[in-house]
Amino acid sequence: NTVMAAQMTDAHRRFLQVLMSNGITEGSEARKLHQHCCETDKVYYAHDKLDDFISTINSHLQPLFMQIRKGVSEEDGRAHYAVVNLAETEVTKMASDYTEIELELFRKTMDLIILSENGFASSTDILNLADQLKTKKMKKKEAEQVLKVFVEDKWLSEKNGEYTLHTRCIIEMEQYILSNYQDVARKCNICHSLAIQSQVCESCGIGMHLPCVRKYFRGQTEPRCPKCNEFWSCDTP
């Protein structure tokens, strides 16, 4: 099999191990790790070959239904890498780490975030859900603690009492979100990955990540939608 032809070295194994223990790794860190693993294992290192290096690992992960995936931070557009288990839905994966009631709170939080206009849910709205859970009611103090754990484990991000999905969560759950929120989940028209925080064209309804909006309209005096060419009425960041 030609795909499997590229040998999995100790450098590849070391890289994979660190990625798995990190949960998610920022692009510049992944590049440093790539160099470090190659130099430690005394194998050929080329600074522009990270994607090839990852492809080799992915070809060996394929039979295990796993994959290293690249995603983009919705906040600043920087690349991130995470190991995704293709055989499990996100909920099965999380079920081993969290209780049923915690998972229910997470799913309800996800509903609020994805169904919101800006991709955020306030802590007040989330905590109001805590005593309406089907599994059993959760005290607000308890719910605050659980939200803190979701932030620490990189499923949620929090800024000034507003919660959104962490980049790790978006990379790992993209398929789940696209199939479970078909009416509202959309991909960014520019980078084609799932967009939770996005601006939407008022005329044709396409969405774009804020970093993609910034890049696409850079230097344009009159921003127009890349799809329908109508005037882009959102304030460009």
Automatic annotation (TrEMBL):
<dbReference type="Pfam" id="PF08746">
    <property type="entry name" value="zf-RING-like"/>
</dbReference>
<keyword id="KW-0863">Zinc-finger</keyword>
<protein>
    <recommendedName>
        <fullName>Non-structural maintenance of chromosomes element 1 homolog</fullName>
        <ecNumber>2.3.2.27</ecNumber>
    </recommendedName>
</protein>
<keyword id="KW-0479">Metal-binding</keyword>
<keyword id="KW-0234">DNA repair</keyword>
<keyword id="KW-0539">Nucleus</keyword>
<dbReference type="GO" id="GO:0008270">
    <property type="term" value="F:zinc ion binding"/>
</dbReference>
<dbReference type="Pfam" id="PF07574">
    <property type="entry name" value="SMC_Nse1"/>
</dbReference>
<dbReference type="GO" id="GO:0000781">
    <property type="term" value="C:chromosome, telomeric region"/>
</dbReference>
<feature type="domain" description="RING-type">
    <location>
        <begin position="188"/>
        <end position="229"/>
    </location>
</feature>
<dbReference type="InterPro" id="IPR011513">
    <property type="entry name" value="Nse1"/>
</dbReference>
<keyword id="KW-0158">Chromosome</keyword>
<keyword id="KW-0833">Ubl conjugation pathway</keyword>
<keyword id="KW-0779">Telomere</keyword>
<keyword id="KW-0227">DNA damage</keyword>
<dbReference type="GO" id="GO:0005634">
    <property type="term" value="C:nucleus"/>
</dbReference>
<dbReference type="InterPro" id="IPR014857">
    <property type="entry name" value="Nse1_RING_C4HC3-type"/>
</dbReference>
<comment type="subunit">
    <text>Component of the Smc5-Smc6 complex.</text>
</comment>
<keyword id="KW-0862">Zinc</keyword>
<dbReference type="InterPro" id="IPR036388">
    <property type="entry name" value="WH-like_DNA-bd_sf"/>
</dbReference>
<dbReference type="InterPro" id="IPR001841">
    <property type="entry name" value="Znf_RING"/>
</dbReference>
<dbReference type="GO" id="GO:0000724">
    <property type="term" value="P:double-strand break repair via homologous recombination"/>
</dbReference>
<keyword id="KW-0233">DNA recombination</keyword>
<comment type="similarity">
    <text>Belongs to the NSE1 family.</text>
</comment>
<dbReference type="GO" id="GO:0030915">
    <property type="term" value="C:Smc5-Smc6 complex"/>
</dbReference>
<comment type="function">
    <text>RING-type zinc finger-containing E3 ubiquitin ligase that assembles with melanoma antigen protein (MAGE) to catalyze the direct transfer of ubiquitin from E2 ubiquitin-conjugating enzyme to a specific substrate. Involved in maintenance of genome integrity, DNA damage response and DNA repair.</text>
</comment>
<keyword id="KW-0808">Transferase</keyword>
<dbReference type="GO" id="GO:0061630">
    <property type="term" value="F:ubiquitin protein ligase activity"/>
</dbReference>
<dbReference type="InterPro" id="IPR013083">
    <property type="entry name" value="Znf_RING/FYVE/PHD"/>
</dbReference>
